[in-house]
Amino acid sequence: MHMTSARNLPSLQTRVANLRRRHLDLAARIEDELQRPAPCSMSLQDLKRRRLRLKDQIARHETVMRNPNGAQFPLGAA
């Protein structure tokens, strides 16, 4: 089980930045799909599910960054 410490914060910050970029990319893809004359509901559902998963990961990582020494869960926990 991998726990986070203060020395892992730079890599964690990089990870969060990457997740945020991916989240924004999915938001743009959702918007593009919505602009189509006949948006595909299955594609939208998949994109939104993936975006929510990223949002959850970002929130977990930000919790660890706020309290790196008190983190009581592994980063990979879902």
From TrEMBL:
Recorded hits in Gene3D superfamilies, A to Z, give: 6.10.280.50
A matching Pfam family: DUF465
The protein's superkingdom reads Bacteria
* Protein name (Swiss-Prot/TrEMBL): DUF465 domain-containing protein
What is the species listed in this Swiss-Prot or TrEMBL entry?
A: Palleronia abyssalis
